[in-house]
Amino acid sequence: MKTVYDFNVKKADGSEKSLRDYEGKTLLIVNTASKCGFTPQFEGLQKLYEKYKEQGLEILGFPCDQFNKQEFDHIEETLQFCQRNYGVTFPIFAKIDVNGENEQPLYTFLKEQKSGILLKNIKWNFTKFLVDTNGLVVDRYSPTTEPSRLEDDIVKSLAIR
């Protein structure tokens, strides 16, 4: 059975990262944008990361420019923006497409596992996927779902009592 651990992604510096490196962790995978109405969700994502990182949560941010060109042209600008404005310390990867012929294969897999309102396609920035410690997609959350509303599901996945 395929899991998220079967995929490689590009880091912000262009090098490859195997998601197998996150094996045994709970993952929250989010397509992000720096100039979107949902951009303030970076603050809530960072709070979740700080609160649960030691228990095994990893948040993986994937900048995407497919929705109204709401991402910077250069990844360095994105990284600086996230750090300066929201104190983001969770990994931000290279800019990707989440829909269409050039979509990142990880996103093809995520969408196959959990469909959304637009069936498989990602509807907008800040769509979130929760992945359990076995690399399986547990749930998909809409862009309007605030990160704080994911806390109970994250806790369950982490098996924190």
From TrEMBL:
<dbReference type="GO" id="GO:0004601">
    <property type="term" value="F:peroxidase activity"/>
</dbReference>
<keyword id="KW-0575">Peroxidase</keyword>
<dbReference type="InterPro" id="IPR000889">
    <property type="entry name" value="Glutathione_peroxidase"/>
</dbReference>
<dbReference type="InterPro" id="IPR013766">
    <property type="entry name" value="Thioredoxin_domain"/>
</dbReference>
<dbReference type="Pfam" id="PF00255">
    <property type="entry name" value="GSHPx"/>
</dbReference>
<comment type="similarity">
    <text>Belongs to the glutathione peroxidase family.</text>
</comment>
<dbReference type="InterPro" id="IPR029759">
    <property type="entry name" value="GPX_AS"/>
</dbReference>
<keyword id="KW-0560">Oxidoreductase</keyword>
<feature type="domain" description="Thioredoxin">
    <location>
        <begin position="1"/>
        <end position="160"/>
    </location>
</feature>
<feature type="active site">
    <location>
        <position position="36"/>
    </location>
</feature>
<dbReference type="GO" id="GO:0034599">
    <property type="term" value="P:cellular response to oxidative stress"/>
</dbReference>
<dbReference type="InterPro" id="IPR036249">
    <property type="entry name" value="Thioredoxin-like_sf"/>
</dbReference>
<protein>
    <recommendedName>
        <fullName>Glutathione peroxidase</fullName>
    </recommendedName>
</protein>
